[in-house]
Amino acid sequence: MKTVWITGAGRGIGAACARRFAAEGWQVALGWCTQKEKTEALAAELNAAAPHTALAVHTDVTDAAGVRAAAAAIEREFGGIGCLVNNAGIAKQQLFTDVTEADWDGMFAVNCKGMYRIAQAVLPGMLHRKSGSIVNISSIWGVVGASCEVPYSAAKGAVITFTQALAKELGPSGIRVNCVAPGVIETDMMAAFSAEDKALLADETPLCRIGRPEDVAAAVVFLAGDDASFITGQTLGVDGGFGR
Ligand code: NAP
Fold first, then answer.
1. Which parts of the chain sit beneath pLDDT 50?
2. Helix crossing, 101-108 with 150-170: angle to 10°?
């Protein structure tokens, strides 16, 4: 059975990915940072449907020792990690002139450096087995940039080139690295937006709606698995045409 480790798996896009991977027969390690109960409830739901499918694991991507301990716990429970989904992320809307050094560093620590940290924890096993895949979650703002989200856009842009560079380095070892760049997706990350704002965003989207977490999960699971076995270094937009 294949095992996937998803960071930020207790809610939003990460939770939709967890459900979709489990439905497709993967064992799923559900990383949580603050949402322990919610993530454990999701693990229980998945285990009720298919025993020994899911494990909730504390994974704060800013904590190097914790990340290594989480990787070891997952390997003990499920064996080798075949896929990593670097989904954990934070966002903040603010004028660039208000951005403090702490804002900047915090945005990069979670959205960008966290990916480096987790990838380093899973790669020894993948390199040993000469197989594996990594799917990183960027954003449409990492492709085109967003006003009032400069640190977020910069960090998500870095995720795309991180993906491209790592894909080149790891391809000869049989490991694929790809990226998904969602548009506007209805999750807690959109909590700061009013219903009116969301209606305007839907109007600006060629497919005339805001995305669902499940829309992103479908792309992630595709890139993770064997159907994408000749695809690496790519960024797949899941955005209904928004922002392009
Ligand atoms: P969300 O519901 O706010 O979920 C964010 C997730 O990130 C949570 O599960 C959270 O874990 C986790 N997280 C935050 N800080 C963390 C840390 N230090 N270590 C580990 N996990 C951490 O948002 P979402 O929309 O599902 O976002 C998922 C990904 O999609 C993010 O990378 C986001 O940037 C990207 N994205 C979202 C949209 C959108 O419109 N929603 C668009 C483009 C890209 P806990 O719940 O345990 O705290």
1. none
2. 30
